[in-house]
Structure formats: structure tokens, C-alpha cells
């Protein structure tokens, strides 16, 4: 990869950052297309997020960035323009800088997750789904699941009030889908999704007991590293088919590249 004065700079902002796979995937696309671009990881904590965005506005060869945990909600305060989906869900996972220094935000997690499932021959229409979490990525996934006509959605979050706010939004937008809060993983699920950061640490344990899972349940995670999270490991022990976190990223890489350019 050639780096010179004409190179266009992209980034990924997160904390921690060492686990991300976006640089490798995106840079391989740039190289394949013969584009003079590079995407690099930016380790930015929440205290420094505002100053970072202010600085990126001033860098004329900065074109855009992927936004990952834990900044997907907090970053909304510092964006100049956002899409309707960002406004509705309240989270953002990719930004771009215009030539005028305007920072625009978009949310592609939900579309990317669904695309990742489809690429692996998994389909959600008419399915009963259990979603762990209601943060930025999980909320986007929840809306995407409903948009793709699931039958039932159960949501769990450690802070129940946050889950209830998400459920209220979803119920208003999709009144014909059975959407509720639950802290019990039933044995009649078609799909279970871990939409949280639980599993990034070796010492982590699944948010809820998975003892009731039946072997016909597809268990998915959004965590990329480690590849086998505590949730996926337990699902494998139950004989379930699993869907790894890298699929969501692969599903939205093209969408991210198109948005930032």
C-alpha cells in the first residue's frame, strides 16, 4: 500500500480498539480497487470524543470513520447532520466529512447484521427472536429485524428501563409484531442474538442462562474478537448452530465504503 500526500484518510473510533477487524477488511478493498486510501484505528476514550471530532473536521484529507463501542450513542452530540434512521434509533456507526468540514452520521449496523445472516443462508421472516441488549448496535438490529417481518421479538437489558424505551419505539413503529421484555430464554426460539459487549473478556459469562436453548436455535453474536464468545461457546455445547460477529461487519463493509465516499 502506497502512502503519499494524496492519500485519503479514514478511521475507526473505539475504546478498546485492538479487537477491530475493520482496518484489514476495508484496506483490502482499497488495495483491490487500486484506491489511494487508508483506514487506521483511532483509540479514543469518551472523554476525548468531542475534541477528536472537532479535530477531524479540520483535517481536509480525512474522509470518514467507522464508529464502534462505546461511542455509537454519545457521538450524536457532536454530529452536524444525521440520517432519519440515526434520529429514530438514536445511534450512529459511520461518519463522513464533507469538503466543507461538515460531519454527517449514518447507522448501518442493522442492515449489515441482516445482510450477514442472508449471506450465510439465515433468514428472519416469521421467526421468534430473542435479543440481548439495547445499545446502539442492538437497537439498530431490533429495528432491522422488525423491518424484515419477524414474528416475535423478546428483549433483555440489564437496565430494564432502557429496554422498555426501545420496546415502546418498536411497538409504535411495528404494531403488528409481538414485542416484549423478557429475562427468560425460552426453548421455542428460532434465533438468539447477543447485541452487547459481553463476551469481549475471557472472564465474561452470558447475560442470561442458556440452559433452555434447543439445538434448532441459531445463536448469533456481534462481537468480532474473540471469535468464539462465551455466548457462542455455550451455544455450541447445546448443539446450536452459531453465527459469528464478523458476519455483521462483512455485511456492511460495502455500505460503509459507499457512504463515506
From TrEMBL:
It comes from the Bacteria. Residues 124-197 form the Quinate/shikimate 5-dehydrogenase/glutamyl-tRNA reductase domain. It comes from Kordia periserrulae. Pathway: Metabolic intermediate biosynthesis; chorismate biosynthesis; chorismate from D-erythrose 4-phosphate and phosphoenolpyruvate: step 4/7. One of its GO terms (biological process) is chorismate biosynthetic process. This is shikimate dehydrogenase (NADP(+)). One of its GO terms (molecular function) is shikimate 3-dehydrogenase (NADP+) activity. It holds the Pfam family Shikimate_DH. Its EC number is 1.1.1.25. Keywords: Amino-acid biosynthesis, Aromatic amino acid biosynthesis, NADP, Oxidoreductase. One of its GO terms (cellular component) is cytosol. Residues 12-95 form the Shikimate dehydrogenase substrate binding N-terminal domain. It catalyses: shikimate + NADP(+) = 3-dehydroshikimate + NADPH + H(+).
Amino acid at each position: 500500500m502506497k502512502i503519499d500526500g494524496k492519500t485519503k484518510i479514514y478511521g475507526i473510533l473505539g475504546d478498546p480498539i485492538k479487537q477491530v477487524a475493520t482496518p484489514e477488511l476495508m484496506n483490502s478493498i482499497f488495495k483491490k480497487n487500486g484506491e489511494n486510501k487508508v483506514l487506521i484505528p483511532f483509540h479514543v476514550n469518551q472523554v476525548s470524543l468531542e475534541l477528536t471530532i472537532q479535530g477531524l473536521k479540520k483535517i481536509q484529507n480525512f474522509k470518514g470513520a467507522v464508529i464502534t463501542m462505546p461511542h455509537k450513542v454519545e457521538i450524536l452530540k457532536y454530529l452536524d447532520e444525521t440520517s432519519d434512521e440515526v434520529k429514530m434509533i438514536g445511534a450512529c456507526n459511520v461518519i463522513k466529512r464533507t469538503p466543507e468540514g461538515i460531519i454527517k452520521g449514518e447507522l448501518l449496523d442493522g442492515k449489515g447484521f441482516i445482510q450477514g445472516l442472508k449471506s450465510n443462508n439465515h433468514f428472519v421472516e416469521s421467526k421468534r427472536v430473542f435479543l440481548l441488549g439495547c445499545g446502539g448496535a442492538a437497537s439498530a438490529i431490533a429495528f432491522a429485524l422488525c423491518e424484515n417481518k419477524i414474528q416475535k421479538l423478546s428483549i433483555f437489558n440489564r437496565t430494564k428501563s432502557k429496554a422498555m424505551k426501545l420496546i415502546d419505539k418498536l411497538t409504535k413503529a411495528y404494531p403488528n409484531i409481538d414485542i416484549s421484555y423478557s429475562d427468560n430464554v425460552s426453548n421455542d426460539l428460532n434465533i438468539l442474538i447477543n447485541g452487547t459487549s459481553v463476551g469481549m473478556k475471557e472472564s465474561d459469562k452470558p447475560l442470561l442462562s442458556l440452559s433452555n436453548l434447543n439445538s434448532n436455535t441459531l445463536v448469533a453474536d456481534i462481537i468480532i474478537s474473540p471469535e468464539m464468545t462465551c455466548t457462542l461457546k455455550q451455544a455450541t455445547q447445546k448443539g446450536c448452530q452459531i453465527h459469528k460477529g464478523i458476519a455483521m461487519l462483512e455485511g456492511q463493509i460495502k455500505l460503509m465504503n459507499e457512504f463515506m465516499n
